[in-house]
Design goal:
Low-confidence stretches: none
Number of helices: 1
Structural class: mainly alpha
Distance between the termini: 187 Å
Order of helices and strands: H
Number of strands: 0
Strand content: under 5%
Shape: rod-shaped
Mean pLDDT: 90
Largest sheet: none
Length: 138
């Protein structure tokens, strides 16, 4: 069943093994080179990604600052408008109070005017009666 191996067959197997070992060494070298290229490409992509991320963060921070400035400006304008509305409301309230006061004054002034007219109305006939009836010719 098993045949004896000859010297030439062993030399042939040895040569085949050396060729295979050489091929394995070449393949190992190719794998290492490929691995180094992949690592270099990965590092390049990672650096580009980090650069893009930094630019994105810078842009985002810039936009946040602009948004905050706009928001603060709008908030200040809103506060100014609210203050003006409050001032107008107070002025309207003051004007209403003055109108009520003027209405009361006008009512009392009207009463005084009617009292004056009534006194004049009574005084004129009294004066005419005195002149006509009691005039002694001084």
């Amino acid at each position: 069943m098993s045949e004896p191996v000859t010297q030439s067959q062993l030399a042939e197997v040895l040569e085949t093994m050396k060729a295979m070992q050489s091929q394995v060494a070449e393949l190992t070298l190719e794998v290492k080179v490929g691995h180094a290229e992949i690592r270099e490409k990965f590092n390049t992509i990672d650096q580009k990604f980090q650069t893009l991320e930094a630019k994105f963060e810078e842009k985002l921070n810039s936009m946040e600052e602009k948004f905050d400035e706009k928001f603060n400006t709008i908030n200040e304008k809103l506060n100014t408008i609210e203050a003006k509305i409050e001032a107008v409301r107070l002025e309207v309230q003051t004007n209403r109070e003055q109108l009520v006061d003027l209405g009361k004054r006008q009512g009392s002034t009207g009463n005084r005017l009617w009292a004056l007219l009534g006194a004049l109305f009574l005084m004129v006939p009294g004066l005419l009666a005195k002149i006509t009836l009691f005039d002694r010719g001084y």
